[in-house]
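Hi Y.,

Following your request, here is the sequence exactly as I used it, all 111 residues.
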Amino acid sequence: MTPRATLATKGLAARAPPHPEIALEPPLDERHLDLSYPRVWTYKVFGRDEEALRRAITAVVGALEHRVEASNRSRTGKYVSLGVDVTVNTDEERLAIFRALHDHAEIMYVL
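Below is the corresponding structure, written out as tokens. Let me know if you'd prefer a different format.
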């Protein structure tokens, strides 16, 4: 049995950043946007079927004030995107809506 390669043996041991004068951004989940609420937040959702996307959006945002607009369709017509403007009241609500859209079976991708 051969020993597993370590980062050091692969030449990937911890190194100083190539440009130490450039501060690296924290990961997205550690950043905080300084936003005032309530505000309208726009999500872009992508999927294969426009009507299924519209039903998914309604299922997620429910009674929250929102507007859905057709955005783009792929050249072959296989994919569609919709813009979703939702009035959100807190960071937590904004992120919860994003996660719920992301997790919905009919939605392939969310921006």
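Strands lie at 39-47, 66-73, 80-88, 109-110.

Thanks again,
Q.
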